[in-house]
Prior knowledge:
heterodimer; A: about 260 residues; alpha/beta; three-stranded parallel β-sheet; about 15% strand; B: about 70 residues; Ubiquitin-like (UB roll)
Amino acid sequence: MDGSVQTEDTWTVAGRTFRSRLIVGTGKYKDYAQNAAAAEAAGAEIVTVALRRVNLSDPSQPMLVDYVKPDRFTYLPNTAGCFTGEEAVRTLRLAREAGGWDLVKLEVLSNTKHLLPDMEETLRALKLLVAEGFQVMVYCSDDPVYAVKLEEAGAAAIMPAAAPIGSGRGIQNALNLALIIEQAKVPVLVDAGVGTASDAVVAMELGCDAVLMNTAIAQAQDPIRMARAMKHAVIAGREAYLAGRMPKRMYAEPSSPLSGLI
Amino acid sequence: MQLTVNGETRSFQGPPNVAALVAELGLDARKVAVERNLEIVPKSAYAATAIADGDRIEIVHFIGGG
């Protein structure tokens, strides 16, 4: 390869192909304008969104769709806040009617302290959603055994947490993530736990297809700049993964030849 | 008639259908989804979907989330 011509590196989920391997959330920003600017700076093509009751007392308040436009970004509706399969199904039926999307993010949480997924309920909800024709990207624990069960139940993507949502603790489970990536036939995304750019690099170097993050960008001191950093981090990690890293050695190996010394 | 909309009890005067309710609430029908007594109301059926006294209506939209 001469460095100037490269085959386009894309990834595909549920029949949709994307160039960007960074999915960003739309929560916790100062306002929707900053949110939209961060999504642009991240180079994201997919954004996660939540579904909530409209504010009846102020119907003129700003709406997400007016800033982060659905014709520019693929909306990935989530089931954040759902604790049962039935709640998740109800939420995503409404999301499908709100926008016509069948590509969705399932998350069924266990408790509000660590927000880790209830995998038994997640698997049950997945089966309900698949039966209704949804294409489901599944937020899950880093358990390789459950990852297989999700895939067998028809998950469109496996999305293990690297650390609790919003914790910013980085990749706590590289070995489990690697096992999940190795066995999966559908895309694997790290979803949750990334805190800074190096975490995104590590996730991509492990061989993830993409990374999903929200808080790491939204709660940075300068969210737009962090969005840009994350864009580069995901590209760097992906390129390093494709390039194949050098072996680790116990001892030094000189970079300059020892022969011909004066 | 009395309706429960998003958990709040409200009086509603207009023609008894979903389209009129959404309009009276000042909402853009293109940007919301509506559930009537736990059943999704397709956007194409707002005008044709009657509402009755005591109905429980949920009106939702997309907001920021992770």
